Amino acid sequence: MEMIEDQHATAPPLAEDEERSAFVKLDPAGFFIRHPPPPHELDSFITDDDSLFQTIHMGAAVVDESKWRLVVSGLVSNPFSLTLGQLRNFPSETITAFMECYGSPLVPPTKALRRIGNVTWTGVPLSTLLSQAQPHESGSYVWTTGLDRGAFANVSADRYQKDLPISKAMNPELLVAYAMNGEPLSKNRGGPVRLVVPGWFGTNSTKWLCKIEVQDRRAPGPFTMTFYNEKYPPDDPLNPSKPVFGVQPNSMIVRPQPDAKVAGPEVAVEGCAWSEDEVEAVGVSADEGQSWVVAELKDREGFSWQRFRAELKLNKGRHTLLARSKGRDGRMQPLGEARNHVHRVEIEVV
């Protein structure tokens, strides 16, 4: 793997764990979750900070930016470290991408949570930093480490650490991000710097990022080996556990809102759909899936969610609307008993 032609200022690698001296404290400490508003209130293309869900596992790290360093090391020929200023001097990219929370790793993935938002991220492509570090051929995984530490579900960890295959890490859309929706990352969003992995569940986008390592195996911590490995049905011995990586096809209705009284017989149904591999089609039904109306579907912008709109002809009375998306890889959103099962909205046509 060749180094990028335009070299940028870096610093020598730090002593072991020296980058962790930028940690000040946790505030607040411990698990914290802020749920998003209901789907009908997520009706703008870009989700503002106040409407975007928050999931913090062990506490929000307060970081001393003057001491913050990003270390790039492991199985590389050119290990280095960066200050925040040096990172910002690298060429940046901005991408629009949905961000979805997988949900609790402690329960079977059968409940649809729709912790979802659509935001713009700005930062340095992860591939740029990896190319400058020159990974060895033996490197097959990239580990990313945050400054947070503590306990989650009674399991202690001295750091939040995730991994991803190096083939994924070299994709151009992955960012070492320092801004969201045009503003510097706040503490609760993982600032000053976090990883962003568009198309993958939020658990893979390490917050309070301080270290990137190329290794020849998966990271050994609890957030890779204990939590966020899907095995469903849990009692199926032939179904191996697998990491929670890519987002399956999903969708939600934003108009009409639940229990709305709408004039008929023509009823417009609008919403948004998303998937790791882009959504190819969305169907809308008012008869529990016996028939479907194919919706008009907007193209994806970067890794954004996609708006859809369908016209249904409905008689007066109560109706249950369903929306179902299909990914370009052929996967279909399930009707029930899955974390991404179809969204149902009851309305009354008057």
From TrEMBL:
<feature type="domain" description="Oxidoreductase molybdopterin-binding">
    <location>
        <begin position="58"/>
        <end position="222"/>
    </location>
</feature>
<dbReference type="InterPro" id="IPR005066">
    <property type="entry name" value="MoCF_OxRdtse_dimer"/>
</dbReference>
<dbReference type="InterPro" id="IPR000572">
    <property type="entry name" value="OxRdtase_Mopterin-bd_dom"/>
</dbReference>
<keyword id="KW-0479">Metal-binding</keyword>
<dbReference type="GO" id="GO:0043546">
    <property type="term" value="F:molybdopterin cofactor binding"/>
</dbReference>
<dbReference type="Pfam" id="PF03404">
    <property type="entry name" value="Mo-co_dimer"/>
</dbReference>
<dbReference type="GO" id="GO:0006790">
    <property type="term" value="P:sulfur compound metabolic process"/>
</dbReference>
<dbReference type="GO" id="GO:0005739">
    <property type="term" value="C:mitochondrion"/>
</dbReference>
<dbReference type="GO" id="GO:0020037">
    <property type="term" value="F:heme binding"/>
</dbReference>
<dbReference type="GO" id="GO:0030151">
    <property type="term" value="F:molybdenum ion binding"/>
</dbReference>
<dbReference type="GO" id="GO:0008482">
    <property type="term" value="F:sulfite oxidase activity"/>
</dbReference>
<dbReference type="InterPro" id="IPR014756">
    <property type="entry name" value="Ig_E-set"/>
</dbReference>
<dbReference type="InterPro" id="IPR036374">
    <property type="entry name" value="OxRdtase_Mopterin-bd_sf"/>
</dbReference>
<protein>
    <recommendedName>
        <fullName>Sulfite oxidase</fullName>
    </recommendedName>
</protein>
<dbReference type="InterPro" id="IPR008335">
    <property type="entry name" value="Mopterin_OxRdtase_euk"/>
</dbReference>
<feature type="domain" description="Moybdenum cofactor oxidoreductase dimerisation">
    <location>
        <begin position="249"/>
        <end position="334"/>
    </location>
</feature>
<keyword id="KW-0500">Molybdenum</keyword>
<dbReference type="Pfam" id="PF00174">
    <property type="entry name" value="Oxidored_molyb"/>
</dbReference>
<keyword id="KW-0560">Oxidoreductase</keyword>
